[in-house]
Each structure stands twice: as structure tokens, then as C-alpha cells.
Sequence to fold (342 residues):
Amino acid sequence: MRVGVLTGGGDCPGLNAVIRGIVRKGVQEYGYDFTGFRDGWRGPLEGDTVRLDIPAVRGILPRGGTILGSSRTNPLKIEGGARRVQENLAAEGIDALIAIGGEDTLGVAATLHQEHGVKVVGVPKTIDNDLSATDYTFGFDTAVNIATEAIDRLHTTAESHMRVLVVEVMGRHAGWIALHSGLAGGANVILIPEQRFDLDQVCAWVESRFKIRYAPIVVVAEGAMPRDGDMVLKDGTLDSFGHVRLSGVGEWLANQIEKRTGKEARTTVLGHVQRGGTPSAFDRWLATRFGLHAVEAVRDGDFGKMVALRSTDIVRVPIGDATSRIKTVDPSLYAEAGVFFG
Ligand code: F6P
Fold:
């Protein structure tokens, strides 16, 4: 049996741990051979492969990024793309494919399985934690830890200068990183994409914090939007690669707060720092288990499925369950955090 492996979409701490888990179990327990495909779906689309055996995965557990490389290439958006993927998989003698990715990568996997019979197993990843059908995705815990450490540090400098510090974290469609790091870091305002914010209310929270002689920390997810539709924020613009670029809500918010409250405000955009570097212990644990269970799904011939975390168990669900809708923050969870605002 020869199994192909690819990692697609934005990278995420823990990808290498998955790859290692897959190869170690597949080789040692089932005697499988593996072929790595470079840069997500670009690999099978162009027949670009990389050696994937036990020596190749040695020492990669704590390393961020992915030894296979990643891209957002979508073969379904390319004329004849699905057929080229099938031909290249056949040319490489691939019996089954493990696709590790988020909504887009797994969406391609689901279509290739349903409409073209490709034997694929999915593994969910995203720092945003916004994939349905799994309690957590790996990468999220690492991102939350990085953001929390940043917030802890910003508290002390904010207090020294009695400034407002706005921290912009990732999360285009869901505010999981903002909510978890905001709670863990003791933020005074948390703003998420799921609920439009009222600028007057934000300024009132900021001012109430100064009244008790503390400097406020505002955590804002990059996809958060003000309630007032005429604000300068846009949903996002497309860059020359066709990727969505958001318009800097953190900087905009700090300017508005400064203008309205007369208090000095600064912005920190954490950006890709949240995605780089070594995965947390939790993410290594989750990613490794996902890898082990993905190989078991291959062994069972259980294709079109994705491994998922339910409580502490790893289960299998149809890939479509994860890609059909985004998992957003429940309003009751957000309301719970409100007691700390202001
Ligand atoms: O999907 C994860 C994510 O980190 C988002 O939160 C963020 O908006 C996006 O990727 C940015 O990705 P890139 O800069 O790689 O296009």
C-alpha cells in the first residue's frame, strides 16, 4: 500500500507532528510506503513529490511549519485540474491520500472523493479553530498561548504609560483566538466577528477602566466589525494572489478610541507570529493522535472521512460535516466573557 500525504492552506503549528504520526504508525505497524506531495494540492496537480519515510520525519515533532510545504492551490478551480490530480496519483502508484488542511483543502478532498472516487482521508487543521465537527483543531492552543503571552506583556507597558493598548489577533470569520486569549490574558474588551461592536460602548468600557486607574487592553479579532455600517472598514480586499486581506481593524480602532476618549492608544498586530514556531504540548498531542487515527482510517478503507476530536476521543466524521459550515463562537460563550469588560 502506498499512501500520499499533503498539507494545504495556511500553515499551523502541529502539521509536522501529524506527518510524523502518520509515517511512524503506517511504516511500523502496517508496512505502508508513503509519498509526500509538495505545497498542498499543487503537489498532486503537478506531480511534485518528496521522499517521506522514517528518516524524513525524525526530529520534526517540535518544529513549526510543514516539511511538505503548503499552498492555497485549488485544483477544482483549474481547467482539467481534477483529472490531472487523478492521473498524477495513479502515476505515483498512490492507493490512498491523507489531506491535512482547513475548510478549503478539505472541501477539495470531499469533492474529489464524492465526484471522482479519490480515496482520501482528511485531517483538520487551523489556528482559527473554526472547523465544525471537531471540538478543537491543532494550532489553536499554540496561537492562544502566543496571544496570551503578548497580552500579559502589554498590560505592564499599558499601565506604565496609562495608555489603551489594542491587540489585533487572527480570526477572519470566528473569534475563538480573541475570546480565549482575551479571557486568559485578562483583557478589558474582547471584540469578535460574530457580533458587531458598538464604538460608543467600547469607549465607555475604556473610560471606566481609566476611572479605577487601570489601563485597558482591547483584544480585537481581525474580522470584527463595528455596528455602524458607514465605518471605513471593508470586508476585505483581494491581493494580487487572490487572497483576502483585511483592512486593519486594530489600527482603526485605536485611532477612534484616541479621538473619542482623548486617551493615548497604540496597536499591536500579532499577525503571523501566531502561526509560526514550535507547537504547544496540547497541539503536539492532538496532532499526533490525528495522524495515528488517519492511518487507521486508511487501513479500514474508511474514505471520505475526517478524524475529529470529541471530548478526549478521536472519531471519524464525513469530511463534508466539517466543511459545510464554519464553527463560530456561541453567543452565550461571548456573553459569559462580558462580566470582565470595562
Ligand atoms: O486561516 C488561518 C488564518 O491564519 C486566518 O486567521 C488569517 O486571516 C489567514 O489565515 C491569513 O493567511 P495568509 O496570510 O497566509 O493568507
Summary: The mean pLDDT is 94. The domain at 2-138+279-323 is CATH 3.40.50.450 (Rossmann fold).
